[in-house]
Amino acid sequence: MPETLPISRRRMVGGMLAVSTMALASGCYAAPAAQGTFPVRFTDAEWRKRLTAEQYYILRQAGTERPFTSPLLNEHRKGTFVCAADGNALFSSVTKFDSGTGWPSFWKPLPGAVATTIDRSFGMTRTEVHCTRCGGHLGHVFDDGPRPTGVRYCMNGDALLFRPA
After folding, report:
1. Which residues, other chains included, contact 127 with Cβ-Cβ below 8 Å and sequence gap of 6+?
2. What pLDDT is recorded for position 37?
3. What pLDDT, on a 0 to 100 scale, did the predictor assign at position 111?
4. What's the average model confidence in pLDDT over 107-117?
5. Tens-digit pLDDT profile for residues 122-156
6. What is the Cα–Cα distance from 143 to 127, expressed in whole angstroms?
7. Residue extents of the structural domains in the chain
8. How far, CA to CA in Å, does 23 sit from each of 19, 83, 96, 107, 163?
9. Burial readout 10-43 (b: 16 or more C-beta within 10 A, e: otherwise)
10. Catalytic residue among 83, 131, 134, 154
């Protein structure tokens, strides 16, 4: 019987990156920002003017930044993480933790700040997290976080801005 290797978070992230890279190379792209009517709305041209190229790619096209590239990964001051598209307060710094995945992670959003949808891109099913004010893609939520919630909101740093307290 073949020996089975335990799946570590690092191996899982590496595998997800490999699958994502193959999907992108084959022309399979993620869905755009959440569909629906949101309080903050702009045309596609207006979003492109308001956001950097990386922010647009993530927030409006549901892209993902490379792991370990966000300066917010090492942000440890007291304050609030807000949506880079509209300034909506999303996460308190009190809920930020080091997940070891390479993306800023939180165990709880602020009340009413985010919503979720099912994301079936890249041949897998995940729970996408988006801003409730503009519908911008922020990242995904997983059930491997710390107490007290047991969940990990794995966010793209380029989708966020930090406001110190």
Report:
1. 116, 117, 118, 119, 140, 141, 142
2. 82
3. 98
4. 97
5. 889 999 999 999 999 999 999 999 999 999 999 99
6. 10
7. 9-164
8. 6, 27, 30, 29, 35
9. eeebeebeeebeebeeeeeebeebbeeebeeeee
10. 154
Q: Are the C-beta atoms of 115 and 130 separated by less than 8 Å?
A: yes
Cβ–Cβ under 8 Å, residues 112 and 128: no
Which one is predicted more confidently, 13 or 71?
A: 71
The answer to whether residue 25 scores a pLDDT higher than 50 is no
With CA atoms as reference, report the closest residue to 165 among 70, 97, 76, 71. 76
Q: Which residue in the block uniquely carries the two structure tokens 């308190």? A: 92
Based on the residue annotation, tell me whether 154 is a catalytic residue of this protein. Answer: yes
The pLDDT assigned to 26 comes to: 31
Domain 9-164 has CATH 2.170.150.20: yes
